[in-house]
Design brief:
4-stranded antiparallel beta sheet, 44% strand, 19% helix, alpha+beta, 5-stranded antiparallel beta sheet, 13 strands, 188 residues
Length: 188
């Protein structure tokens, strides 16, 4: 009986540390690929669960997805209208949606309307979409964010044009939250 107990304790002592710190082969592949990112590449998100098993990263203002099962890397087209550079990326609190803020300065004739654009990428389905466009962006600690955009142009008494803008706020998952009151934009 003592030999049996000793054998079980020894077996547990050997296997417990291995199982506690061990990763799945998929997780190890994602982790290894993230460690091999080049200097011009930045990781956005690592997913090691069974549904996603991939690494999303930015290279030269383009987003790529490394699939750990197939070992392949593919570019993700998330902004259908084109863009100049990626300004910022962030992930929703639940980790399911990635957001990308892009600069479109050279592609627009109305910078107060669509100088910047926020696009989303669902990490489960791969679906992408445009959230909003505007010219000024902000994000709060709780994950909610806004984009200021022009909604109207009016001619004033002096014969000049006034630009009316508003802040459109979104929850941390990209759903519309509210729109702040319209105001006169003061070009600084």
């Amino acid at each position: 009986m003592r030999i049996k107990l000793f054998f079980i304790i020894c077996l547990m002592a050997v296997l417990l540390p291995v199982s506690a710190s061990g990763q799945t082969p998929i997780a190890n592949r994602v982790k290894a690929r993230a460690a091999r990112l080049k200097s011009n590449e930045t990781a956005i998100a690592k997913y090691t669960d069974d549904r996603r098993h991939c690494l999303f990263f930015v290279r030269s203002s383009r987003i790529f997805k490394y699939d750990a099962v197939s070992g392949s890397t593919s570019e993700i087209v998330f902004c259908q209208d084109g863009y100049d550079t990626i300004m910022k990326t962030w992930i929703s609190k639940d980790g399911g949606i990635m957001f990308v803020l892009v600069d479109r300065s050279s592609l627009t004739t109305q910078p107060l309307v669509d100088k910047q654009e926020i696009c989303s990428l669902n990490s489960f389905t791969g679906k992408t979409g445009k959230i909003a466009s505007g010219f000024s962006f902000g994000i709060k600690k709780d994950g909610s964010f806004y984009l200021t955009h022009q909604v109207d142009v009016r001619k004033n008494a002096h014969g000049r044009y006034d630009h009316i803008v508003e802040d459109q706020w979104f929850y941390d998952d990209g759903r519309p939250l509210w729109v702040k009151d319209r105001r006169l934009w003061k070009n600084k």
